[in-house]
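discrete fold record:
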Amino acid sequence: MGVGATLEYFSDILRSKKKKKKKLLQTVDLKVRMDCEGCELKIKNALSSLKGVKSVDINRKQHKASVTGYADAKKVLKKARSTGKKAELWPYVPYNLVAHPYAAQVYDKKAPSGYVRKSENTAITAMNPVEEQYTTMFSDDNPNACSIM
């Protein structure tokens, strides 16, 4: 083993110790109960004090806090809860992204306008054969559909 190979070996060892995982820039949306400007300011100051946070946007009407930066979502949620406020990750998605927005698992009266609750349950999007039969029976695409209407 030559001197060049030995130096290369040691430089690889030193480089591998210095490498850190790069965190990705992400936006974490939280639902935080806020009633007044004091609550809003308390949440904003707490979240902006986290390391790696670039910006904090608060929408008091929707009870939404958006944190943009290199901070982990779990740490952001923990910091929001440390203020004494009830906080959770933003549970809503835009209305037009859901196949059946009025299904029992998805529709939420407390959701802001234009939003419905997130649902990973795909069973609500699939119809059973009987439901499908009734749906197509009264469809405009079906030439043998009921003509009473």
User: Anything to note?
Assistant: The two ends are 90 Å apart (CA to CA).
